[in-house]
Target: Addiction module toxin RelE
Amino acid sequence: MTYSLDFDSRAMKEWKKLGDTVRQQFKKKLAEVLLNPRVEANRLSSLPDCYKIKLRSSGYRLEFVVAVDRRERDEVYRKAAQRL
Model:
């Protein structure tokens, strides 16, 4: 199963405020997380489907939600037809 990444508008504001080195570290970790987002060691116990990424060296923590949703079968084809 492939996963995609979407930022909430408030999270995007915070993302842009981060320094370049911290963002690069998070990008590297996020690329790994997109392959396997449900790592039990990173799960937040108090929130369902919420996980974390910790950068120990810089002291930052990123929390994310894994949201799984079904799409209609023809939705992809309709969107492709609109682009053509």
In short: The first strand starts at residue 50 and ends at 55. Helices lie at 9-17, 20-35, 75-83. Residues 9-83 form a domain with the YaeB-like fold fold (CATH 3.30.2310.20).
